[in-house]
Specification:
Blueprint (H helix, E strand, L loop, with lengths): L1 E2 L6 E2 L14 E2 L13 E2 L2 E9 L3 E7 L6 E7 L7 H15 L9 E6 L5 E6 L3 E3 H8 L4 H19 L3 E2 L8 E6 L2 E6 L6 E2 L22 H4 L7 H17 L9 H10 L5 H4 L7 H10 L11 H11 L6 H4 L4 H10 L53 H15 L10
Antiparallel strand pairs: 1-2, 1-3, 4-5, 5-6, 6-7, 7-9, 8-9, 10-12, 11-14, 12-13
Length: 415
């Protein structure tokens, strides 16, 4: 229920404004679980309802008192707010996303202190679900949906990379899907573990803040290497693409060390041979397996180049930036008449050509997505994975496990 703080009239939870005087309604709270922040103001926004809880903090609905604009307000838990690394990561999420303006990156608005020793961040209020939630519920998804999502993901990451920004913790839970009549609209979340390549400020060093989430970590991250660049995000996108087709994670293991061992030493099976549904051509294997190559120099040079190779693997012509804004229904129609190219083997890029692309639409912001500065998608065949165990990885994996057990700020997820 919601209640008008002026006249006291109660409304259904879907009613945001009082019918008597237009006042913003506030969530009616359980007397046994009162949240003192509900009804107060943080920055420019009134906290009107509690939405969700995460390990690191709580998410609220906020409203601007004058414009009535709706936002999401993320607030760190009090104990987390005492962790300097967690606070720095939270602040970086704001600083990084705030300077970027792209239809496939979440719009972050404000950062500040709560007045009671914690910190808050406001961002656009999104309607939909995380890609991770979708995959956990449904498993594999249809190719036409995957093509649209991966194309948008590539466009958003290329834009971020043009600022020198590497996400470093890309995973399905950081890919939010807003639902429209045209299909999903991707919003990339949580740039908190980002590294600015031009940056000279302090680095985040606690376990988890630099390593990212284990299932989607690149081999160079897993081995603790320092030369992490945009191809780390390319690896994560390819691992996500594999999961979209197959219905479970690309690198499975009973614990963090086992997962990292597979990431460094084992190549995944061709996704088309494991796919949970029809429509995944063998050429798709070339694109995805090149994206998860152990040696980053054998991966596509940008997320957009990976998306282009995935699009081409289905026999679709044209750049990913245009398919990103093509409706899911149109993509399904194009796939039905497309002829995928012959696979060339692991590491070889798929040939272009095939079904014609619909007319080039604009993005939701009215502009075409920015091109990637790295350019190019050529890559050589990857060498076979080493047959023996990687001792350094075992050490890193053990340290990560100890870090997790010790309560370090690992695998940050808020909301």
């Amino acid at each position: 229920m919601r209640k008008c703080p002026s006249c006291g009239t109660e409304y259904d939870d879907s009613i945001a404004f009082c019918g008597q005087d237009g006042t913003i309604t506030v969530q009616v709270q359980d007397p046994t679980d009162i949240d003192p922040r509900v009804g107060t103001q943080l920055g420019d926004y009134i906290v009107v309802a509690r939405v969700a809880d995460g390990a690191m903090g709580r998410v609220y609905e906020g409203r601007h008192p004058e414009t009535k604009a709706r936002v999401a307000v993320k607030v760190l838990h009090a104990d987390v707010a005492t962790d300097e690394v967690a606070v720095e990561r939270f602040k970086r999420e704001y600083e990084t996303a705030e300077e970027m303006n792209h239809p496939h990156i979440v719009d972050v608005i404000e950062f500040g202190e709560t007045g009671d020793g914690s910190y808050f961040l406001t961002m656009e209020y999104l309607f939909g679900e995380e890609l991770g939630e979708l995959l956990r519920r449904d498993g594999a998804i249809p190719p036409e949906r995957a093509v649209r999502i991966l194309s948008q993901l590539g466009a958003g990451l290329d834009y971020a990379h043009s600022f020198g920004v590497i996400h470093r913790d890309l995973k399905p839970d950081n890919v939010f899907l807003t639902h429209t009549d045209e299909g999903d609209v991707v919003k990339i979340l949580d740039f908190g573990s980002v590294k600015l390549q031009m940056e000279t400020g302090p680095k985040l060093t606690a376990f988890g803040t630099t390593l990212g989430s284990p299932y989607y970590m690149s081999p160079e991250q897993a081995m603790g290497k320092l030369d992490v660049d945009q191809r780390t995000d390319v690896f994560a996108v390819a691992a996500i693409a594999w999961e979209m087709a197959v219905g479970h994670v690309c690198f499975e293991g009973d614990n963090v060390a086992a997962i990292l061992m597979k990431i460094v030493n084992q190549d995944p099976a061709p996704p088309s041979s494991q796919a949970a549904g029809p429509g995944w051509p063998s050429a798709f294997d070339d694109a995805v397996l090149a994206g998860v190559a152990k040696d980053k120099t054998h991966r596509p040079k940008s997320a957009g180049a990976l998306a282009d190779s995935i699009v081409a693997s289905f026999g679709l012509s044209g750049p990913h930036t245009q398919w990103a804004e093509t409706s899911q229904a149109e993509i399904a129609t194009a796939l039905a008449s497309a002829t995928p190219p012959e696979p060339k083997g692991f590491g070889a890029p798929a040939a272009t050509g095939g079904a014609a692309l619909p007319s080039s639409p604009l993005s939701s912001s009215g502009q075409m997505s920015a091109p990637a500065p790295m350019g190019g998608g050529a890559y050589a065949p990857a060498p076979s994975a080493p047959s023996g165990p990687n001792i350094a990885l075992i050490v890193v994996g053990a340290l990560v496990v100890l870090g997790l057990l010790g309560g370090a700020a690992a695998f940050f997820l808020l909301g």
